[in-house]
Amino acid sequence: MDKKTRRQQSLMRYLEQNRYMSLDEIADRFSVTTQTARRDIQELELAGKVRRLHGGATIAFSVDPVTYRSRRIENADAKERIARHAVRRIRDGTTIFLDTGTTCEAVARELVNHKGLRVVTYSLRVANILSEGTDFTVAVPGGFVRPIDGGVFNQNTAGFIRLFKFEMAIISVSSIDLAGDICDDDQAEVEAVKAAMQQSEHTLLAVDSSKFGRRALVHLANLRDIDELVCEKLPDEPYRSMIENTGISFFTPDETPGHGMTAR
C-alpha cells in the first residue's frame, strides 16, 4: 500500500468519526501541502466517498451500514443505562416523540413496560419495538425507508410531525461542541427533530458521553434549548463546565449531579 492510499484511508477514518475536516487541518494532520490535501479530497469525491464542503470535506453519507452496526455495540451498556433512567420520567399515557438512532432504540425497549403511551416516531425500528405486545398508539410518517437505520422520510416528514402535540420529545444527536451546540449528520433528520421540539412541552436529550467533542455537519439547537440531559456519566472538562454554564438539568443513572446541575 502506497503512502497516498494510507493517507486517504486515515482521512476517511477521521471523517467517519468527526464528519468534517478543513483543508488546513488535513494538511497539518498529514504533513502535506493544501494542494495535496485538495487533490486527496477530489479523488475521494470522484470515488463517492466524500463531499467537498466549506473549504474542506465531509463524509458523503451520514452513516454507513458498518458504522451503524458498530454503534449498536459501541457504548451499548451506557445506552441501556441512559434509557432506563430516561424512561423513569415518563408516566403511563404520555404523548411522546421518539427520535431515531441506537440510543432511542434502547429507550424504546425500556418503554414497553409502560401502559397507554401515544408515540410519534420516524423510525421503523422504534415503531416495531413499541407496537409489538403493547397497547400503545404509534404513528409514523409515510415515505421512503432508509435501510441503514429504518428512518422514514419524505418531503413533508417535518409537516407530519407538526400535526401532533407532545408532552415530551426524546431526542439524541451525534455531536455536542464546546459552544453547547448540538448537531447531527442529516438535514432531513434535523428538520424532523426541530419540528418535534417546537411541538413539545418538554425536550429530553439522551446521549452517551462519547458525543461530547465529536463533530457533525448540521446544527440542530443549543443545550439551552433543551430541558434536561441524560448521560451515563458526567463528561470530562471542559465540557463539564460548559454544561454547568448552560444551567440545564443534567442527570446520570446514579443520580450524581455536578456543581450547578440538578438531579431529580
TrEMBL record:
Name listed for the protein in its UniProt record: DeoR/GlpR family DNA-binding transcription regulator
Any one GO MF annotation of this record: DNA binding
Keyword annotations of the record: DNA-binding, Repressor, Transcription, Transcription regulation
Organism: Rhizobium puerariae
Keyword Chloroplast among record annotations: no
HTH deoR-type domain boundaries: 4-59
